[in-house]
């Protein structure tokens, strides 16, 4: 055998070894193709603006209608979307200040742009009615009917002095680990 032939045989053997290793790797990946990814949508609702709450609820109800397990994690200003009332009793001065300055639910939220001291929110609500679009309150109710998981961030609730009796009934409480537990298995993750 010539030196060239021996070198070719070595290269062929090395190539065959690489092919075998790649085939084994492909087989392992095919055995676990998505590694835990499920038909889920995980959403952080951070904004306390009406238009963003509308968008979040439209996306959540659309995803749930399409069969995706949907979760919404309400944190910081997003807590405004899940409030039902303002309560001042039992709060310190800073917590009372936050309560006074922040909306007490979907009905009191303003727009992110062109709010005009609340007039913009009323215009959007009228336009939604005129065009047959569900109100934000109806979208919220529909999301719950469709089984959208709604989780309130405990840390944000504590920081802003939001008490349980200020929140809509039937919400879950959790922290970042709760959200990440949903997000790590989700095909879609959004931050609104």
Automatic annotation (TrEMBL):
Parts of the chain that traverse the membrane: 53-79
A family per Pfam: DrsE_2
Domain of life from the UniProt record: Bacteria
Gene3D superfamilies per the UniProt record, alphabetical: DsrEFH-like
Keywords: Membrane, Transmembrane, Transmembrane helix
SUPFAM superfamilies: DsrEFH-like
Alphabetical list of PANTHER family matching this protein: CONSERVED WITHIN P. AEROPHILUM, PEROXIREDOXIN FAMILY PROTEIN
Protein name according to UniProt: Peroxiredoxin family protein
């Amino acid at each position: 055998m010539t030196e060239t032939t021996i070198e070719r045989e070595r290269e062929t053997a090395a190539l065959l070894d690489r092919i075998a290793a790649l085939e084994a790797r492909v087989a392992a990946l095919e055995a676990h193709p998505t590694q835990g990814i499920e038909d889920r949508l995980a959403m952080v609702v951070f904004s306390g603006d009406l238009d963003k709450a509308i968008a979040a609820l439209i996306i959540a109800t659309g995803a749930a209608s399409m069969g995706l397990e949907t979760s919404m994690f309400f944190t910081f200003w997003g807590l405004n979307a899940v409030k039902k009332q303002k309560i001042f009793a039992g709060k310190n001065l800073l917590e009372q200040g936050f309560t006074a300055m922040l909306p007490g639910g979907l009905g009191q939220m303003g727009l992110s742009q062109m709010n005009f001291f609340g007039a913009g929110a009323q215009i959007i609500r009228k336009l939604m009615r005129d065009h047959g679009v569900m109100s934000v309150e109806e979208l919220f109710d529909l999301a719950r009917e469709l089984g959208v998981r709604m989780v309130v961030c405990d840390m944000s609730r504590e920081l802003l002095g939001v008490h349980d009796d200020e929140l809509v009934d039937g919400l879950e409480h959790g922290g970042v680990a709760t959200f990440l537990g949903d997000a790590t298995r989700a095909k879609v993750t959004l931050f609104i």
